Amino acid sequence: VGVGDDAAVVRHDGRDVVVTTDVLVDGVHFVLRTCGGVAAARKAVAVNVSDLAATGARPRGCVAGVVLPQGTPFRLFDALARGFARAGRDFACPVVGGDTNVGPGPLVLSVAAFGDVGPRGPVLRSGARPGHVLSVTGRLGGSILGRHLSFRPRVAEGFVLGETGVARAMMDLSDGLAADLPRLCRASGVGARLFADRVPVHRDARRARGGKSPLERALSDGEDFELLVAHRRLSKAMRRTLARRGVVLHDVGEVVEGAGVTIVEDGRERVLRSRGYDHLRRARGRR
Ligand SMILES: [Mg+2]
Description:
Blueprint: E1 8-12, E2 15-25, H1 32-53, E3 58-69, H2 74-90, E4 95-103, E5 108-116, E6 133-136, H3 147-150, H4 155-163, E7 167-172, H5 177-188, E8 191-195, H6 203-207, H7 214-220, E9 227-231, H8 236-244, E10 250-256, E11 260-265, E12 268-271, H9 280-283
Parallel strand pairs: 3-4, 8-11
Antiparallel strand pairs: 1-2, 2-5, 3-5, 6-9, 6-10, 7-9, 8-10, 11-12
Bound molecules: magnesium ion.
The site of magnesium ion (MG) has 7 residues, from strand 7.
C-alpha cells in the first residue's frame, strides 16, 4: 500500500509491516513556548500512532528526528527526551533510535513509526461501499483547548475494528470530518451523507471562542484524532462485543453511490464544503 492512505504497508518476510511518518513544526502543530518540550514530543509520537491505529495496526516502535534551533538550552533537549520516552511507554511505541541536528529554527520533530496488523491485514481508506454506515469513535471539535496535545490515539479501538472485520474502511480525523471524509470517499469511489443531529459534538466545541458554531467546529476544527469508520450495520451481538472491548461507535451518516459529501440539517440536505484544517503547509503530504 503506497502513498494516499494513513500509512504505507510493506510486505516483509510474508508479514505486513505498517509504516507512517509525520513532521511537526513549532508554531504550526504546537507552540513550544506555551506547551513545552514534553508535550511537543508526546504529540509527535501520538499523531504517528494515530495513523497506525487508522489501519488497525498495533505500534511496535518509532524513530525520531529532531532539528533544534541554534542556541537551544539543554533543558529543552532534556524535555524532548523525556516526552519521547513517556509517549513510547504510554502508547507501547518505544522510540528506538533517531537523529538530532541543529538548524536556524523553529524546532522540527519528525517521527516515523511502524507496527503490525492482525490476520485480516490492514484496513484501508478504499473499502467503503454504498449502504455502509459511517461512524466515529468519539466526540469532535474544540481540540484547540488542549486535546490536540493530550489526545489518546485510538489504537485499541482500531485494532479491534480491524481484527473483528467490522471496519471496511478507516482513517483518523486529523483535519476534521469535513476535510477527511471526502478523502475516504475519493479513495473508495463513493459519496457520503452526514446527519447534523447525529454528529457527536465535544463540549470543548461549545466552549471554544470564535465565530464558528459548535457543529462547524465538530466538522472542521481538526486534530480530533478519532477514527472514522465505514462498516456494515452492526448486529446487536456485534455491538455488544465491541462495547465489551471498549469500542464505542457514534453513527454519523451513510455511504452512498456517486461522489461528494452532503449533510442533512433541519430536514434540508446541502453539499458539505470542505472547510477542515487544510492548509497547504501540510495538506498535500498529510497522511
Ligand atoms: Mg491520518
